Automatic annotation (TrEMBL):
This is Shikimate kinase. The keyword Nucleotide-binding applies. InterPro entries: P-loop_NTPase (IPR027417), Shikimate/glucono_kinase (IPR031322), Shikimate_kinase/TSH1 (IPR000623), Shikimate_kinase_CS (IPR023000). Pathway: Metabolic intermediate biosynthesis; chorismate biosynthesis; chorismate from D-erythrose 4-phosphate and phosphoenolpyruvate: step 5/7. GO terms for biological process: amino acid biosynthetic process; aromatic amino acid family biosynthetic process; chorismate biosynthetic process. It comes from Streptococcus minor. It is found in: Cytoplasm.
Length: 163
């Protein structure tokens, strides 16, 4: 069964996944490999709906894997009802990484490698609304919730491993 890392952008899913043992699959990386470009470029060329369709395809493929796997999802994976149904089937193995909005915002601002399309196109206030509007969706699916504000990636990885 897969352990799934959920959470908003900047909460540490990709960073923490690097500290977990076993097979770790990052959905954003898999999507970029499939589409042959960055997610930001794809958003610009094809739009968010096309991206969300590919995101759902990848999640469905990953959920069929039989071996134990850690899956780091993108922040918007919970927007699709289809994805939420898939994630509900994974009960007892869904980990929500949370942070305060200010911490997530600072982390995203400081990240020079991952250019997040929604971050680049929204005001801080719109981005904060997005952050809070997704929280209930994440919490509804979570079996373990870990606040990442004052923990190291190694500490968070240890908590997940104990799950």
């Amino acid at each position: 069964m897969a352990k799934i890392l959920l959470g908003f952008m900047g909460t540490g899913k990709t960073t923490v996944a690097k500290h977990l043992e076993g097979r770790v699959l990052d959905m954003d990386t898999l999507i970029e490999e499939k589409i042959g470009m960055s997610i930001a470029e794809y958003f610009e060329e094809q739009g968010e709906e096309a991206f969300r369709n590919i995101e759902s395809e990848i999640l469905e493929e990953l959920m069929k894997l039989k071996e134990d796997t850690i899956i780091s999802t993108g922040g918007g994976v919970v927007l699709s009802e289809k994805n939420r149904k898939l994630l509900r089937r994974n009960r007892h193995h869904n980990v929500l990484l949370t942070s305060s909005f200010d911490v997530a915002y600072r982390r995203i601002q400081a990240d020079d490698t991952a250019k997040r399309p929604l971050f680049l196109t929204k005001s801080k206030e719109e981005f904060e609304d997005l952050f809070y509007s997704r929280m209930a969706l994440y919490q509804d699916l979570a079996d373990l919730i870990i606040n990442t504000d004052h923990r190291t990636p190694e500490e968070i990885a240890r908590l997940i491993t104990c799950m």
